[in-house]
Design the sequence.
């Protein structure tokens, strides 16, 4: 199957239509003076069920109250502790 080739003018004037076709899996090539310049193809973006949301582990993990003190001695020993 040959990929559709459009010139720059057609790509500009028909962009919405062409992108609709791309979203359905049809890639195309943009040419300038008959020479291929760019290939337009759909991105594989995650769908709604695959999108990770901030806070998706709420209630499954916890941060200890002394989190900012953990490893203090080791950090001071390695970095000098002049803070």
Sequence:
């Amino acid at each position: 199957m040959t990929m559709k080739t459009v010139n720059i003018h057609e790509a500009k004037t028909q962009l919405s239509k062409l992108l609709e076709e791309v979203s359905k899996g049809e890639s195309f090539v943009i040419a300038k003076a008959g020479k291929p310049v760019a290939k337009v193809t759909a991105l594989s973006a995650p769908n709604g069920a695959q999108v990770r949301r901030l806070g998706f582990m709420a209630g499954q993990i916890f941060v200890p109250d002394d989190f900012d003190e953990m490893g203090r001695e080791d950090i001071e020993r390695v970095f000098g502790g002049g803070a």
Observations:
- The domain at 4-40 is CATH 3.40.1620.10 (YefM-like fold).
- The two ends are 67 Å apart (CA to CA).
- DSSP finds three helices and three strands in the chain.
